[in-house]
Structures are given as C-alpha cells and as structure tokens.
Amino acid sequence: MAEPCVDHLAAVHRILRYLQGTKELGIMFPSAGSPTLRAYSDSDFAGCIDTRRSTSGWCVQFGDAFISWRCKKQDKVSKSSTEAEYRAMSEVGSEVVWLRRLLSDFGISCPLPMDLYVDNTSAIRIAENPVLHDRTKHIEIHVHYIRDLVREGTLRLHHLQTEEQVADLFTKAFSTSRHWFLGNKLMLRDRHQFGGGC
Question: InterPro entries from the entry (predicted)?
C-alpha cells in the first residue's frame, strides 16, 4: 500500500485545525430583506494540479440571507480564465432559475431580472453578446445557457471587483484576515452573537 502524499496530509491537518477553530460558528439567516435573488459567481483557473481543471464557486442570496452555495471542480479543462468564469456563471444560472421556481411554488414571487455578480468582464461580454466570437467556438453549447438567461431578461450581469467577490471564498485559499472578511460577508457568525445559540 502506497504512503499518503505529504501534501495531502498537510491539507487534511489544515482542514482539521480549521474545523476545530470554527466549531462555534453558524450562518445567520436574517429575516429582513426584499424577496429578491442575487448570485455571486467565481472560479479559479486550472487550479487542480493533477487535472488542470478549474473550480467553480458560487452562492445565492435571498433577501439578506445566503441560501445556496457550491464549490465544484469543473467537468472539463478550460482553455482560459474567461472560459472558467463563464462555466461557473452557467452553473449558478441554473441554480437561480431552479430556486426562483421553488420559491414560486411556495407563493413567493421574485422579480426579474435577477442579479449575477462576476469579477471577469470578458465573461460578462461573452454572455451579453449574441455573436459567437472565434475565441468562444471551443466552449460547449450547453455552457451558453447563460446567454439565453441574459437575453430573455432572467439574469442581469454586473461586474464586481475581485476584492468584493464573496464567491472567491469557495475557490481559493486565503490569508486568515481575507478568509474572515469574506466569511463575514456570507453572514458567518459566532453562535453567541445569535442571542439564543444556533
């Protein structure tokens, strides 16, 4: 039996230390806020050193509460950071459409267009431009789903500075201060701040 890689053991040790240090944390779900859905999407580029696949990270906010989030290695290798970001946008696009339908089943109407915040202006331009550029011919058709959502008025894309991108937390490792800055934006709180516990 092969010995575990030292890098993998270090990563597991880091995860265990993080879990030990954050066991008092919970996610706050404020009741205030309008019934709107907002999404944040990000990716790393070729972040997996074994496969060179990128990781998508996104989160969805309903009113002031984050209700859905995901971090997932992409199925295909992206040829550029723009393509990796575009793939992540397509994934979260499917999620917000599904969430809007689910909320509608509960009698909650979310206005259109829903806002999607992205820190890659090239990916935004590709989604908003119906002309297929030479540099996007290699992107699979199903990924262009995001274009359809923009064209039909379901989603409205916004550029967001990388420093403010909360979905960044799902795609990269950060310094402690940056990690807590983003965690705070995601409403990650010490359980004693809830008044009655988590």
Answer: DNA/RNA_pol_sf
Contacts of 101 (CB under 8 A, 6+ apart): none
Chain mean position to CA 68: 9
The CATH number given to whatever domain includes residue 50 is 3.30.420.10
Of the chain, the percentage scoring pLDDT greater than 90 comes to: 42
pLDDT band at residue 135 under the 50/70/90 scheme: low
Residue found under tokens 């809007």: 100
Query: What are the phi and psi torsion angles at 157 (to 5°)?
Result: -95, 140
Domain assignment present for residue 1? The answer is: no
For residue 50, being part of any structural domain is answered with yes
Rounded Cα distance, 110 and 99, in Å:
10
Domain that holds residue 111: 6-194
Q: What is the pTM of this model?
A: 0.80
Tell me the two tokens of residue 31. 């009741």
| Tokens representing residue 103 in the block | 């909320």
Distance CA 171, CA 47 (A): 9
Residue 86 lies inside a defined structural domain of this protein: yes
Q: Which residue has the tokens 């403010």?
A: 164
Q: How far is it, in rounded angstroms, from Cα 72 to Cα 53?
A: 10
Q: Is residue 185 part of a domain?
A: yes
Domain count, the chain: 1
